[in-house]
Each structure stands twice: as C-alpha cells, then as structure tokens.
Amino acid sequence: MKYRYVEDPPFEKKFKSICKEAIAFVQRKMRSYLTFTVTLIGSGSRNMLMLNGKSKKVDLDFNFNIQRDKNNLLNNPFELKRIAINAFKAYFKECDDVAVKNSKSAITIYLGEISKYICSFDCAFIVEGNDGYYHKLIFDKNFQRYIWNRMPHSQDHFAKYEWLKHHNYIDKIEDLYKTKKDVLNDESSTIFIKTINELYMKYGQK
Questions:
Q1: Phi and psi (nearest 5°) for 119?
Q2: Is the dihedral angle over the CA atoms 85, 90, 92, 93 positive or is it negative?
Q3: pTM
Q4: Cα–chain-centroid distance for residue 80?
C-alpha cells in the first residue's frame, strides 16, 4: 500500500497536544535523574502525518535528547528505560485503553482511537557522542541487552534541515520523504534523516 498524508488539522493538533502533555509529565518526573530536551522528528515535525493506504493508524516520533545525566543512567540503560516507562504508566494510569510498551528503539505508547484514527507515539532516548553523531538507545531482545547505536548520517542533521528550510526546499522534503516511505522498510526518523542528507548533498553543496 502507498502512504498518504493526513489532511485533518484539528486532529493533528489534538493528537500532538496529548503526546506533548504526557511527555512534559515524564520530563518533570525524571528531572532528579537526568534532563533532556524533546524534539518531534520525522514526518510529524513538518505537519506531514502519514497513513499507510486505507489504514487509520498514525504515529508520531519524539527524540529525548539527553543533556545532563545526574545518576550515571547512560551507563545503566535498563534503569533509564524502567524509570521512563513507569513515568508514562503513572501519567496514563486512569486510561484503560492506553498501553505503554518497551520496543526495540523507543518507548511506544498506544493511545487507541482519537477522532477516528488509531494513534500511537514513540519516544527514543538519544545522546550526542564525541564523534559528532547521535546515538540511540536500542534494546537487543535476542541478548536482552541495551546498545547505544550510532545513527547513520545524523552528523549535523539539524543544521542541514534548517539550511534546506531556509532556502525553501520544504516541498522537496515532503515529496522525497513520501517516495522513500513507500519503498523503504525503516523507521520514520531514519527515513527522514536520509531524506535530509540526500537533498542537502544535492542542493546544499552548491
């Protein structure tokens, strides 16, 4: 099935608001352990929510960019994930239809139905390494271990995106992202990074 964009601004606003309120609660709960900034990434960051064919499933992706680690949780990722998952569960404790799961590369919150759409959002912990690349916390289920996995092409990603946006290449970002989404079996955030890098190599190097 081909992907298509959601064209429902009131729904998008409501969906993002629900996610951001939950994330703000988790930030406050975790403040004594570590601090992080939150970035809405992938297609959702450009009001480019997508549906797969006739499916009503839609999701958002957020990065938790770790700024200050107060309790050495970077070296104790099991505890880091446990604290975050418990904070999300505490926020949604009165919502029987919400499920919080530990997925491979994120915490996935299944919200259920919102305005006829089936909604979920992913929250991934990332940290900028000394090599200038971003590293994402990955759960290897086969070996029951966590890995800080370097994200390919993530070096200077935000600067490249801002350059393309400033030079009015947003339409090209949307078109290329949709094309890649149709053919690549990968995470939305990874596809978005590939899109930005390909366009920057084509236009930003001139």
A1: -115, 145
A2: positive
A3: 0.82
A4: 17
Long-range contacts of 164-173 (CB under 8 A, 24+ apart): 164/196, 164/199, 164/200, 164/203, 164/204, 167/203, 169/199, 169/203, 170/46, 172/199, 172/203, 173/46, 173/199
Secondary structure of residue 2 in the 3-state scheme: coil
- First-to-last C-alpha distance (Å) of the chain: 36
Distance CA 163, CA 175 (A): 17
pLDDT band at 32 (very low <50, low <70, confident <90, very high): very high
Residue 46, by phi and psi: left (phi above 0), alpha (psi -120 to 50) or beta?
Answer: alpha
Bridge partners of 204, per DSSP, are none
